[in-house]
Structures are given as C-alpha cells and as structure tokens.
Amino acid sequence: MLTQVADCVLTHRSELLENNAVVVLGGAGALVVDPGLTGGEMACLAGDLRALGRPVVAGFATHPDWDHALWHAGLGDAPRYGTARCAAALRDLRSGADWRARVAEGLPPEIAGEVPLDLFGLVTGLPAGTARIPWDGPPVRVVEHQGHAPGHAALVVEDSGVLVAGDMLSDVLVPMLDDERDDNDPVEDYLAALRLLEGVAGDVDVVVPGHGSVGGAGEVRARIALDRAYVHALRDGDDPDDPRIGPAARPGWEWVADVHAGQARRLARGGGRRATPRPG
Ligand SMILES: [Zn+2]
What we know:
Elements: E1 2-6, E2 9-13, E3 20-25, E4 30-33, H1 39-52, E5 56-60, E6 80-83, H2 84-95, H3 99-105, E7 124-126, E8 140-145, E9 152-157, E10 162-166, H4 186-200, E11 206-209, H5 219-236, H6 256-268
Parallel strand pairs: 4-5, 5-6, 6-7, 10-11
Antiparallel strand pairs: 1-2, 2-3, 3-4, 8-9, 9-10
The structure holds zinc ion.
Zinc ion (ZN) binds at residues 65, 67-68, 167, 210-211, 280.
C-alpha cells in the first residue's frame, strides 16, 4: 500500500525492519528509491504503481546495504542509480564468485527465502559531485556523505520539501557507524554527515528514514540532535540516554540495544571488524 507523505512523494513500507521505499512521481513516471525487501513487497509496489498508471522510469539506492539495493523484475528495467562509491561497493560485492551466499548469510532468517537477489546491486554510479538524479521528474538533490556506509546518499525532493534520509535519522534504529573498515574515522564521518543533513534541514518539512516513522515539520532537527547526542555518547564512552535503546524502545526493536553494545565495544577497542553482520 502506498502512503502519500507530501506532494508527489509516497512511501511503501516493508513489514520486517520497517523499511520505507520512496516513490517520487513525475510526468513521465515514477522514481523508486530503495524498493523493499521481499519479492512480495516489491511486486506489491510494482502493482500499486501500475494501478496509478506510473511506470518506473528511474531507481535509486541510497547505499550499498542489502536492504536498500534490491530490485524486482516487476518494477521494470529502468536505470537504477547510486553514488559512484555506492555503485563501486556493489560492483565489488557482486564480483566475488560467492556473492549470493555472502549476501544470503546476512539476511534475517524470517525472510531469507523471500528476498530475490538476481537484480540486487545492479546500480549505475553517478559521477562524484552529481547534484541531481538524472530523470524526467521533479528535481531530486543528491546529498552524499560518509557515515553509515560508503557513498551513502540522502535525497532532497526539492519542490515537495522531503528529505529521504536513507539509514540516517531513524526513530527506531540508533546511528549505525561504518566501523567495519580501518581506513576511516567512523565517529567523525558520522558527525560530518549529520552536519550536512543539518544544512538541508531548512529546505524540508518531512523526513523519510530508511527504517521507522516518517517525521513531520520540526522532526528533522530533533532527530539530528538525538543522533548527534548518541554519537557523542558513543565517542565519549558514556551510556547514551536514548529512547531507541532504553526501556522505551518500540516493541520488536529491543535488539537495537545489542547493535549499540556492539558498536560501543568496537569503538572501545579502537575499531576492528564487526563481530556480527549488520541487520539493517
Ligand atoms: Zn537499512
């Protein structure tokens, strides 16, 4: 089911992990961002768009994590974009002979058999510095930053005042740092990404996170502040006072406290590889 969140912008929610696929409507058809997780969900989205008479004319993956770079044949073969770094990471992943097995290994067991991998990660990289998604529709600004994943991009649907935040600014997931590599500063990268999003906060009234609830006016800055406080606490070795990992955590999301504990452990050790695959 599609839900309208602003003029020309709709979302389609995945059951597990509350992933938000985003649809931007243009004259020629629809731009689909991070379409969903299971074959059934993506076929449902494709059916909804057919019913609206809007063919998919472009796709976009906010970042190279499995739950954001899937695709379904029913959505058609429109060009799919991501940042150059996102596309490179996906190309690299798919180049391994055992890539399917590696991706499948990280899937949540509840839906592992329902996630179609054939079209996973087939994304064309936009040259670094690309300002807007090349498509025949309302202007959609690309705001690339590092922090959660290489080449992570938020999108600003300018005329609609919508920030598509990818895996940032969620009300259910704490900031998940890119602390798997040893060639970056995960804390500083994340803080820089939040500063960048703060810079566009004045242009938007709605924030659509990759997971969780859509936020209205005022929520963008509040979520940035909460995420910044979390990252500061993580950096300083403090216990974050954060509703997403305390007793107030949404039912079904208690595991986010484990994500936090894992990050805190890794940071305390000064980085290193993830002990467990990242869930979202
Ligand atoms: Zn995600």
